[in-house]
Design brief:
InterPro entries: A/G_cyclase (IPR001054), Adenylyl/Guanylyl_Cyclase_3/4 (IPR050697), CHASE2 (IPR007890), Nucleotide_cyclase (IPR029787). Pfam families: CHASE2, Guanylate_cyc. Keywords: Membrane, Transmembrane, Transmembrane helix. It comes from Desulfobotulus pelophilus. The chain is of the alpha/beta class and about 650 residues long. The chain folds into 3 domains: about 1-50 and about 340-400, no CATH class; about 55-315, no CATH class; about 435-648, Alpha-Beta Plaits (2-Layer Sandwich). About 40% of the residues lie in helices and about 20% in strands. Strands 20, 21, 22, 23, 24, 25, 26 and 27 form an 8-stranded mixed sheet that branches. Strands 1, 2, 3, 5, 6, 14 and 15 form a 7-stranded mixed sheet that branches. The protein has a 3-stranded mixed sheet with strand order 4-8-9. α11 (about 325-335) packs parallel to α13 (about 380-410), α12 packs antiparallel against α13 (about 380-410) and α13 (about 380-410) packs antiparallel against α14. The two termini are about 65 Å apart.
């Protein structure tokens, strides 16, 4: 009886059938989130990196980056500098609360200058840098070990940290003048972008904090403690991952408080400006700095450490959501997605799907902005994408019988191709169009018909294909719609199907780009006679849309404005002949050439932006009376204008 009831329920509620596969899919994706392959991890990070653009915070004003920048290098020469220069600058920082050095000084230089730097560091609250590379710790001597011991974390316990038995440390006597040492290492994610910040490293049996942690310890007189309940700096909990690294919450690079090292050396610099500042000193000069690829671009290495301190001060270190919490999110999505299967109309399902995608991103962004949470929305988004795909297949299979019935009903009086379109996209067969203002462009090669009589078919096709390539690119570059090729002629539409408020200008830019491209084309084909082209551009109301029959139609435009554009193109040849004749007779001519003719409306729209000249009004075929026409002096238009308005 129970088995029969289950079978009945399964048959009656067909929308329940994909639930089990979707639950399995959720379990698989959850497992993927726990140990993602490199490509998946990179894609997940790239999607959630968009959060940073919404970060409303700025680093605390007590922080300062003293930047050995391009200006400094221009002033004091190529890096590294003589160390007595650095010493003079460091002496100006006597009133700072903490000074972090993102510089190692691992090699000895001139002894007197090394000693001068060491003397300038005496008595300063300075933290020196070590780099976890180079010689083994055991070869550095007891004095280095003792210095590291004084700088290490006292309550690291059995914390899981990145380990190293190698390091580079400052040389004597500089090291003896530095009260504390700290690591300068940061580790990239799978896609080689820097998002996480290791709090500390095991160096032998010592837990050496990273520079930002050491600066915070000294500034706040609190220790970083690893406990079973979590990681704490004083009473502040630090949301770190299983290897003791936090996710940095980046700010806009321009928002980091910084001054050039040259400012320290200025005669009018007052050391009291540094009072109670938390200062980090490092290099940003290109070719010298350890630039780090972050989600917001290339950051100088010192800003990685400063970002951590800033995050501590404003409490904005995000807590990453993973593990069972990610599993709960995926299960909630299963429940949210299930009612979508009851929606029969696919066009009604699409906005629901979009709403769920938007809700996923909104939840991730909201958690980041208001909850201090970091949700890798890639995994819920991946599940939803695959669930939609699977669900749509399920619904398609369920509706297949209905589609066959529809096909049978219409096949007696509609062509099979039309029936298929009707079933899949009924709106695509709607005839007619809409009236709107358009700009129309027509081109034609002069004398090409006569030339084609002397060419074999293969050569003619090759030449036309090579010609059409740059011409078509010009149409697309300036937001045009290629309507059709008519022999060697081209028709293009502007302001349809997509709106373009500046369509007369874009049509004119296309015409200019075409003629410039034709010059290049002729130069690239010296074995053939140069091609010449006439272009007509007109603006006005027309009807545009799918025009034709139910079994064959095309997107095009019709109307008087279209006809005028075509007539303007054909008039270019006659106008140019008249101009040349007048010029031979010694008459003044408004222009030497008229390769582009504009109608009145187009001219009025572009006359203040492009060089145009009025020509004598003339009759156009199929039009009564004389029409005003204008020549666009395309050779006077700089290439920079064309580049500035290319469609992006």
């Amino acid at each position: 009886m129970k088995k029969h009831a289950i079978q009945t329920l399964w048959k009656q509620h067909t929308f329940l059938r994909p639930v089990i596969p979707m639950l399995i899919l959720a379990f698989v994706i959850w497992g993927l989130s726990l140990r993602p392959p490199v490509l998946i991890a990179a894609m997940a990070s790239a999607m959630s990196d968009t959060y940073y653009a919404f970060n409303p915070n700025e680093p605390d004003s007590s922080l300062l980056f003293v930047d050995i920048d391009h200006e400094s290098v221009k002033t004091y020469g190529r890096w590294p500098w003589p160390r007595d220069i650095l010493g003079k600058g460091f002496e100006k920082l006597s009133e700072a609360r903490v000074i972090g050095l993102d510089i190692i000084f691992a090699e000895p230089t001139d002894q007197a200058k090394d000693e001068a730097l060491a003397d300038s560091l005496l008595g300063l609250p300075v933290i020196g840098g070590i780099f976890l590379n180079g010689p083994r710790l055991s070869s550095l001597g007891a004095d280095v070990y003792d210095h590291l011991l004084d700088s290490s974390l006292m309550q690291a316990g059995t914390a899981r940290l990145v380990e190293s038995d190698r390091l580079e440390a400052p040389v004597s006597p500089i090291r003896e003048s530095i009260p504390f040492l700290a690591a300068l290492n940061t580790l990239p994610d799978a896609d080689h972008r820097f998002r996480h910040y290791p709090l500390a490293f095991w160096v032998g049996d010592l837990a050496i904090p990273n520079l930002g942690v050491q600066m915070a310890r000294l500034a706040r007189h609190e220790d970083l403690i690893f406990t079973e309940r979590g990681i704490f700096l004083g009473d502040q909990r630090i949301p770190a991952d299983g290897e003791g690294a936090i996710r940095l919450n980046f700010y806009r690079e321009s928002s980091y408080p910084s001054i050039s090292f040259t400012r320290l050396m200025a005669d009018d610099f007052n050391p009291s400006e540094m009072q109670d500042k938390i200062v980090i000193i490092g290099v940003s000069e290109a070719g010298v700095s350890d630039l780090r690829a972050t989600p917001l671009g290339q950051f100088p290495g010192p800003l990685m450490h400063l970002t951590f301190v800033a995050n501590l001060l404003d409490g904005s270190i995000p807590e990453e959501i993973g593990g069972w919490k990610m599993a709960a999110i995926l299960l909630f999505l299963c429940l949210l997605w299930l009612p979508c299967l009851r929606i029969q109309n696919p066009w009604q399902r699409i906005p629901v799907y979009l709403a769920i995608f938007t809700a996923i991103f909104g939840a991730g962004l909201g958690g980041y902005l208001y909850g201090g949470l970091w949700i890798e929305i890639f995994y819920p988004g991946l599940w939803l994408t695959l669930a939609i795909f699977g669900g749509e297949i399920h619904l398609f299979m369920e509706s297949r019988a209905g589609s066959e019935a529809l096909r049978s009903a219409f096949s007696s009086y509609l062509a099979p191709e039309v029936v298929e379109k009707l079933i899949q996209h009924p709106e695509s067969l709607r005839l007619g169009g809409e009236a709107r203002e358009l700009s129309l462009l027509f081109t034609d090669l002069r004398g090409f018909t006569a030339r084609s009589e002397t060419m074999n078919a293969e050569s003619m096709v090759q030449l036309l294909n090579a010609y059409f390539e740059p011409m078509t690119r010009a149409v697309f570059t300036y937001k045009g719609t290629l309507d059709k090729y008519i022999g060697d002629a081209i028709m293009a539409i502007y302001n349809a199907p997509l709106d373009d408020a500046d369509h007369p200008f874009h049509a004119c830019l296309t015409a200019i780009a075409m003629l410039k491209a034709l010059e290049t084309f002729n130069a690239d084909h010296p074995d053939t006679d140069p091609l010449r082209m006439g272009i007509g551009v007109n603006t006005g109301p027309a009807v545009v849309g799918n025009l034709g029959s139910s079994f064959r139609f095309s997107y095009t435009a019709i109307g008087d404005a279209v006809n005028v554009a075509a007539r303007l193109e054909s008039a270019t040849k006659e106008v140019n002949l008249e101009l040349q004749a007048d010029k031979k007779e010694g008459k003044d001519v408004p222009v030497d050439y008229a390769d582009i003719l504009l109608g009145e409306s187009t001219y009025q729209a572009v006359r203040h932006r492009l060089p145009c000249t009025a020509l004598p009004p003339r009759p156009l075929k199929g039009k009564s009376g004389f029409l005003s026409i204008y020549s666009l002096k395309w050779k006077e238009v700089p290439q920079s204008l064309l580049e500035a308005h290319r469609a992006r």
